[in-house]
Protein 1
Amino acid sequence: MDAILFALALEVVLLQMRILESTSELRYRKKTESKPEKAQREKLVRDRSRGGILNELITKRTEWTLELCNADQKIAQLRDKMKDEMQNANARLCYVDKWLFARHESLEMQWNLEPRAPAPSLNHENRVHAELVRAYELQIEERECTLQYWKQKYLDDTANINERLTNKCEQLRQVVAKREELQKLFDLHAGEMRAWLTFKSERAARLAREKLRKDAATRLQAWWRGIMVRRALGSFRHLKNLKKTPTKKKK
């Protein structure tokens, strides 16, 4: 980074020197030229100097940008390298630590060995072998007894399950037969109920018609009786020589 800053400062100084040289040349030409020429010359020089400076600045900015990108890449590479070195160092330290610990344990075992017990006798070996064989035989016998027990239990359970299935099938057949019989009885009662409801509705309609005819006949008879009474027709004619019934005198 210091080298980059030094290069930037050097470029700025060179640009300032070029600007001073161009200004000195302009001052010298101003003394020998007329005013319009001087003005035109100054404008042309300013434009050229401005364009040249801008181009140089753009070029330098591009170069500085590339240098900064390269510097960033180098910094990232250095960081990755430092990280890898740190991880490798930690791995080596861990390996050395474990190796030293294992070496320490091996040395302790080497210098702290206890005396071994004497080898067992042949009789002892035979007795132990016989006991192991007997133990294995007992375990095998126990496994065989357990296997026989579970075989018999499986046969008994399957026979019991088959018997229960047979009973359940018979019960299902009886229930289905009873259900069909009850369904027939239900259908019969349903037909009777429909017939009874039909009869009931027809009877209600017939009674309503009879009541309507009876009420109509009663109203017609009452109307006719009223006409006969008002007009004194039939048995309601007025009697001219109607004998008055004697009234009883009070004592």
Protein 2
Amino acid sequence: MSPPNPLPHPAASQTDAPGGVGLWAAVAVSYVVSPLALPPLVYGLVLAHVGASWAGVAWGAGIGLVFLSVVPLVYVGGMRLQGRIASLEIRDRTKRTEPFLVALGANGAALAVVLGIDVAGRGLLAALVACHALNTTLLVLITTRWKISVHCASVAGAVSTLAFVHRHVPGRVLDAGPAGAAVLAGGAGLTGLVLWARVRSRAHTPAQAAAGTGMGLVAPYLELVALSGAIGV
């Protein structure tokens, strides 16, 4: 996934943040661990866990990639090329509602496609897409009033989702063995790294980054617990 412009020079978009290697690292982390990069990774991993075929895993990852990554990225990239936003991160929260609504529309399309395919774990995948839509809606509502960190909410939400699967869904990838523990430990470390990056680059205050992290850790897990009966886990 390549943004229209490569990593911006820190002085161009982080003028209020102290410079140096730390700032470069924070900007790089923010672009690499983008909210748009996570859905295909999570969906593919979850379907592999429940024993879906390689074709099924590809379907899940592909749906996440096309509808929840590419469509929003193309729209935000268009806004950037038109000069409507200063960067792909959309630091001005007043500019976030429109791309969020596009993302919600893409979520609806993704859910329709999921319900129309026959793969192992389809019910669980549909629940993940539905939770993604619900949490996107919550972020839309919050960001109209306060600049909560979408980056932090997204990476923490991915970890929360994998933790739910690890604990409640029988399978082979995210089981109680070393592999499952390693994935969750890596996700926890990545969550902390993103929180640091968003604060270090002055994209968010510590409170905004912490709030996003907290929402991501709690909301998806509770939503999936509530949907457990419907998805048969």
